[in-house]
Amino acid sequence: MAEFIRVAGVAEVPPGTMRAFTVAGRRIVVCAAAGAFYAVEDLCSHDDAELSAGFFEPDDWCIECPLHGARFDVRSGRALSLPAFRPIVTFAVRVVDDSLLVALPGG
């Protein structure tokens, strides 16, 4: 069962940006696009690169790996381009007051 854990304040991830956090020993990237927040594991499914070192395109909800350019949809984790074909891990996000909460398996 997943437990929602506070990651940051809403203001720490301005619209159109992404920011990496370590929560309960996991590296997570929170992305802000179109008035919503999305969270993904900071790990490319193709070659274990840190996605937070890549690029975020908020208009397309895409995060791009800095190593080989694989792109992923931050809403679903779906791989959008080669060389990646496996999805990345996503986490549910809730906004409570001014806090961003992310659902992590096992809390």
What does this structure look like?
The protein has no helices and 10 strands. The protein has strands at 2-9, 18-23, 26-33, 36-41, 55-57, 62-64, 71-73, 90-91, 93-96, 99-105. It is mainly beta and 107 residues long. It has a single domain (2-105), classed as Rieske [2Fe-2S] iron-sulphur domain (Rieske Iron-sulfur Protein), CATH 2.102.10.10. It starts with a strand and ends with a strand. A 4-stranded antiparallel beta sheet has the order 2-3-4-8, with no helix packed on it. Strands 1-10-9 form a 3-stranded antiparallel beta sheet, with no helix packed on it.
Detail the topology: elements first, then pairings.
Layout: E1 2-9, E2 18-23, E3 26-33, E4 36-41, E5 55-57, E6 62-64, E7 71-73, E8 90-91, E9 93-96, E10 99-105
Antiparallel strand pairs: 1-10, 2-3, 3-4, 4-8, 5-6, 6-7, 9-10
Concise overview:
The chain is mostly beta strands. The chain has no helices and 10 strands. Helix content is 0%, strand content 47%.
- Helix-strand category: mainly beta
- Biggest pleated-sheet summary: 4 strands, antiparallel
Could you give the count of β-strands? Answer: 10
Number of helices: 0
